[in-house]
Specification:
Layout (H helix, E strand, L loop, with lengths): L1 E4 L1 H13 L6 H17 L9 E6 L3 H15 L3 E6 L8 H13 L5 E5 L4 H13 L2 E5 L13 H12 L5 E5 L27 E5 L2 E2 L7 H5 L1 E5 L5 H5 L6 E3 L2 H7 L14 E5 L6 H13 L4 E7 L3 H4 L6 E6 L10 H8 L4 E4 L7 H12 L5 E3 L1 H6 L4 H5 L5 E3 L3 H8 L3 H6 L1 H12 L2 E4 L5 E3 L6 E3 L12 H13 L7 H23 L6 H18 L7 H5 L3
Parallel strand pairs: 1-8, 2-3, 2-5, 3-4, 5-6, 6-7, 7-9, 10-19, 11-12, 11-14, 12-13, 14-15, 15-16, 16-17
Antiparallel strand pairs: 1-10, 17-18, 18-19
Helix pairs in contact: 2-3, 2-4, 3-4, 9-20, 10-19, 10-21, 19-20, 19-21, 20-21
């Protein structure tokens, strides 16, 4: 997995690299950063030869990276306009040195270095240069930005975006697009054109990924993101952080979803008990069960209220359905029947389509208090337990809650807008207070471990999955992964299930189109995603002995 760093974490990394025990000269790291942009973007833009490139260099070290880039692409055959947005003395020593080198190269033909003017003639000239350039490079602001852009950056960003919208200009961002908050993904002007951020086609970022590059709306501004280590020492790149967050990768999921033993049987792959539904919402219960089946659960038991059972029995023969009690929803009188069965279940699911009756809340409470297996809580179960913080705290780390933003807002007491401003921070704070594992569903989905406090951001999934029932399928998938033969902990199971769910949705988008595919179709795509995951593993664990010749 890849670290997702904050601005302060990046500053600490830089300090240690340059002024701590490693003693790397700041000018060397700046040289490496500028060269990394030239190298990483070369194939993306089709080579620098004969390209006209306009580079905007801000007052900080981000601008120094731009000066270095200009020198490298000049050597590669580009024609370069460099706009210097600060006074020479305002730059750091190393950035100023690189600027002096560039000024020595300037010839007013292949290399033109100029300050950003203030009158209409200067702005018209800039507009003309943008229109005749093939590439624009945003090296204006780095990781320290927050709030709203000011002039002249506001006008420059708008001009870059306007020209790029014609399709004639490729925009590259150095480290992070100007106007994007590194920590939260917030953007200047809330994305409005008049003082909005730069929208890049490609961002070349350094050392570690920044949270703002994977959290919306910043993610929309970043385009294709490429990470370059720029010569940072490996211990710095891999060191744990005090406030850890990570981007999930396919290799992480492959470690959780190791191939099945060929001698395994259904008992090795867990028994999922899904206790949910009501007479009005039988579909939610069936989708959760289908998600569990398609994710490889050994056995799936679906227990629904008696009046709901006729709508579920026989719909999918792999799912063992039985009606409980005699109502259209669960009541406290139904708890004993469920508890008697639950002793043989590996994991329990409650919530999808369950209804919001007071009697159902009492039923859920009884089940939680008298079981010890992992429990996945979704939808109505979450809504019913909003005021049961102490109860859930006492359950330990066996609970995983899967709210969407509105449900999470009710649970946490935070406004949705405040949650979105600091998605990772809000999720981690909730887990710290409630002592449960969390899947905060959204774009992107964030998973937080009750055991470690680590946050994991999921990169898969798409807007076509924004429809009713997707969360129900995911709930069943989490339960199924949690009881795999490899016995992952519940947070690992959550990470794997969320990743698979999004990857299955991406597969459906490629097959059906950008939207209109169903939750059941997403569930049906899961086995193929798992198969491809296993196929992509370089050395499946079960074959390692054969390679060594010892079996």
């Amino acid at each position: 997995m890849q670290k997702l760093n904050t601005a302060e974490q990046m500053r600490a990394m830089d300090r240690t690299a340059m002024h701590g025990k490693y003693g790397i000269l700041p000018a060397v790291l700046m040289e490496n950063a500028g060269h990394a942009v030239a190298e990483q973007a070369d194939s993306y833009i089709g080579g620098w030869m004969d390209k006209t490139v306009i580079i905007f260099c801000g007052k900080g070290n981000n601008g120094g990276d731009g000066f270095v880039l200009a020198r490298h692409i000049l050597a590669a055959g580009a024609r370069v306009y460099v706009y210097v947005l600060g006074h020479t003395q305002s730059y750091s020593e190393e950035a100023r040195l690189h600027l002096m080198t560039l000024l020595a190269i300037e010839d007013n033909e292949s290399c033109i270095v100029t300050n950003c003017g203030n009158d209409d003639i200067d702005w018209q000239l800039l507009k003309q240069r943008l229109q005749t350039s093939q590439v624009a490079v945003d090296a204006m602001l780095g990781t320290g930005f927050h709030g709203d852009l000011r002039e002249p950056l506001t006008t420059i960003a708008a001009m870059i975006n306007e020209t790029a919208a014609t399709g004639t200009l490729t925009v590259l961002a150095v480290d992070i697009p100007t106007g994007v908050n590194t920590d939260t993904g917030e953007v200047s002007g809330s994305g409005e054109e008049e003082n909005g951020p730069v929208f890049a086609d490609m961002t070349i970022t350094f050392g570690a990924l920044k949270r703002g590059l994977v959290l919306y709306p910043g993610r929309t501004c970043a385009g294709s993101v490429v990470l370059d280590a720029i010569g940072m020492p490996l211990p710095l790149l891999t060191q744990p952080e005090d406030d850890p967050a990570y981007l999930l990768q396919e290799s992480d999921i492959a470690e959780i979803l190791i191939p099945r033993s060929p001698a395994s049987h259904k008992g090795n792959h867990g028994t999922v008990g899904i206790v949910t539904g009501s007479s009005d919402m039988a579909g939610a219960a069936l989708m959760a069960a289908h998600g569990a089946v398609r994710s490889g659960a050994g056995k799936v038991f679906l227990r629904v209220p008696a009046q709901t059972a006729p709508y579920c029995i026989g719909r999918q023969p792999e799912i063992m359905v039985r009606g409980i009690g005699n109502q259209a929803y669960f009541t406290p009188e139904d708890a004993d029947s469920i508890l008697a069965e639950s002793a043989s279940w590996s994991v329990l699911v409650m919530g999808p389509g369950m209804g919001k009756q007071t009697e159902t809340k009492e039923f859920i409470t009884q089940i939680l208090q008298n079981t010890t297996c992992p429990v996945v809580l979704d939808a109505d179960a979450i809504n019913l337990l909003t005021d049961e913080k102490e109860l859930l705290q006492s359950m330990g780390q066996r609970i995983i809650m899967t709210p969407h933003l509105a449900e999470f807002s009710r649970l946490s007491g935070m406004a949705i807008s405040d949650i979105q401003r600091n998605l990772i921070g809000a999720a981690k704070s909730f887990v710290h207070d409630w002592h449960v594992n969390l899947i905060l569903k959204g774009a992107p989905t964030v998973i937080v471990s009750a055991k470690t406090g680590n946050a994991y951001v999921n990169p898969t999934g798409n807007a076509g999955m924004a429809c009713g029932g997707m969360g129900d399928v995911l709930t069943g998938m989490v339960a199924a992964v949690a009881v795999r033969e490899s016995h992952p902990d519940i947070c690992s199971a959550a990470c794997a299930a969320v990743y698979l769910h999004g990857a299955a949705g991406d597969r459906c988008r490629n097959e059906y189109g950008s939207y209109g595919f169903t939750p059941m179709e997403v569930a049906d795509a899961v086995p193929r995603v798992i198969h491809e995951l296993e196929e992509n593993m370089a050395v499946p664990l079960l074959q390692e002995h054969l390679i060594g010749g010892t079996l």
